[in-house]
Structure formats: structure tokens, C-alpha cells
Design brief:
Blueprint (H helix, E strand, L loop, with lengths): L11 E5 L3 H7 L4 H21 L4 E8 L7 H14 L2 H6 L3 E5 L7 H14 L6 E8 L1 H17 L10 H7 L10 E4 L18 E4 L9 H12 L9 H5 L2
Parallel strand pairs: 1-2, 1-5, 2-4, 3-4, 5-6
Helix pairs in contact: 1-2, 2-3, 6-7
The structure holds 3-methylbut-3-enyl trihydrogen diphosphate (2 copies) and magnesium ion.
């Protein structure tokens, strides 16, 4: 029996959706079938997160490194991304879509469909679903450094004025708070170049469950686990429990 404290729902949950390929292989199916099933999980988890009041859900959908997969798998994933952008789902759940990542590397038809969906859902005020596409944290941080260097070169920023806030403001995630909770499905215990700056103090939750098998119940169990933890941010336990 899962009991959630509705006053302590994480505002931002980031997920590394892993295990589609192994889910398919275990059933003697093509990897693409795992991705198809995974797309259904995206719909279910989006609804489940919105329902309990999560404000931002950031899903690692395609990493910079994933461009190195066989071209037919990349093509299948691109087609699936488009197929999954069902506006009905966004409208019904009052969800807004945002994209982070190097969009310029995505095929033109994918860029167009994403732009359209972002535009059509921009006024939705419930949860923001953020898809990390052609994203990697090192790419993002490198871009931020380049932007700051350009500002210094133009004379609008002095090197001594560069602060954590400046850096943060140059990241693709500057419109949202850092994730309180990071979930990785599929059993691997690594971050795979995801939100390295933003997850500095996130609570990490790893589960063996493959992404296509991940349900609303699994999500709520992860939130419950998060709520049982004490977030100390470098302080002592006494400091954070006495007011
Ligand atoms: C995650 O599942 C989806 C993407 C990376 C696009 P995988 O495709 O990595 O599945 P496994 O890790 O091979 O099982
Ligand atoms: C991470 O999964 C990227 C996404 C979930 C989109 P991978 O399956 O690509 O990660 P590695 O290669 O096992 O680290
Ligand atoms: Mg994987």
C-alpha cells in the first residue's frame, strides 16, 4: 500500500527511461517493439505524474550518444517520437511540451512536429513534460560556456562576475527548478550524461524494472521512497530537522 504525502510531491522528476531493448529481447521481439511499448509507458507515466501534482517531468528520450546506434534504430525512434506526440493527451491532462537538446541535429520533419506541439500546448498550465532529445549534459555545459565566453568577448560580462547563477541561466533547463528526484529504470547504475549540473543534489532512485514494465504504481513507489529520505544539503541531521 503506497501512501504519498501530497505536501511533499517532488516538483521536478527526471527519468532515464532505459531497458526497452532488453524488454523486447526477453520476449524474442525486435528492439523496436520495446520502444513501441516504451512509448505507451510515456503516456501512462505522464498522466500519473500530472495526477499527483508533479510540475516538471523530464524524460531522457534520445541522447547525443544514441546517434551512434544502427541507423534503422535511430530512424525508428525518430518516427516513434512524432507518433507519440498526441495532442489529445497533452490537452486532456493540461500538459505543456518543452524540448531540451540539440534540435538542429534532428530531422526536419521531427523539428517541425515538435515545434507545432510545443506551440499548441504552450498555454497548458498543469505539468510541463520536457523531452531531452539529442541531449547530453556535457554538450549543454559546453554550449553554456561558449555563450558566456561570447558575452565576455562582447564586453557585457566580466569574468569575475561569472556566478553559478550565470551558468545556470545559460543551460537549456533554465526555465525550471532542478529535479528533486532522478529515476533510472532498467537496472544500470549510471547517469549516462544526463543533467549532470542539475542533479548535483537530486535523490537518485534506481530500479531493475524495464521501462516498458514501469507503471504508475512504480512511479508512486519511487516518490514514496523519496519522501522517506532526509535531504541534508551538506548540513547535519539536527540542522535540517529543528526549525
Ligand atoms: C532506452 O532503452 C531507450 C533509448 C535509449 C532510446 P534502450 O534501447 O537503451 O534499451 P536497452 O538498454 O538496450 O535494454
Ligand atoms: C540512456 O540510455 C539514454 C536514454 C535513456 C535516452 P542508454 O541505454 O543509451 O545508456 P547507456 O548506453 O546504457 O549508458
Ligand atoms: Mg539502454
Amino acid at each position: 500500500m503506497i501512501t504519498l504525502d501530497y505536501n511533499r510531491i517532488p516538483r521536478h522528476i527526471a527519468i532515464i527511461m532505459d531497458g526497452n531493448g532488453r524488454w523486447a529481447k526477453a520476449r524474442g521481439l525486435e528492439r523496436s517493439m520495446g520502444h513501441q511499448e516504451g512509448a505507451q509507458t510515456v503516456r501512462d507515466i505522464t498522466e500519473a505524474a500530472a495526477k499527483v501534482g508533479v510540475k516538471y517531468l523530464t524524460l531522457y528520450t534520445f541522447s547525443t550518444e544514441n546517434w551512434n546506434r544502427p541507423s534503422h534504430e535511430v530512424a525508428a525512434l525518430m518516427a516513434l517520437i512524432i507518433e507519440s506526440l498526441e495532442e489529445e493527451l497533452f490537452m486532456k491532462n493540461n500538459v505543456r511540451l518543452r524540448i531540451i537538446g540539440d534540435r538542429s541535429r534532428l530531422p526536419e520533419f521531427v523539428q517541425k512536429a515538435l515545434e507545432r506541439c510545443e506551440h499548441n500546448t504552450a498555454a497548458n498550465s498543469g505539468m510541463t513534460m520536457v523531452l531531452a532529445l539529442s541531449y547530453s549534459a556535457r554538450w549543454e555545459i559546453t554550449e553554456a560556456v561558449r555563450q558566456l565566453a561570447e558575452q565576455v568577448q562582447r564586453g557585457v560580462l566580466r569574468p569575475e562576475d561569472i556566478s553559478e547563477e550565470n551558468v545556470q541561466n545559460q543551460l537549456t533547463t533554465s526555465f525550471m527548478p532542478d529535479p528533486e528526484l532522478l529515476i533510472r529504470t532498467g537496472g544500470e547504475l549510471r547517469l549516462s550524461n544526463y543533467l549532470l549540473w542539475q542533479c548535483a543534489y537530486s535523490e537518485l532512485y534506481f530500479t531493475e524494472t524495464y521501462w516498458p514494465d514501469f507503471t504508475a504504481e512504480h512511479l508512486y513507489a519511487a516518490i514514496e521512497d523519496y519522501q522517506s529520505r532526509e535531504r541534508r544539503f551538506g548540513k547535519t541531521s539536527e540542522q535540517v530537522t529543528t526549525h
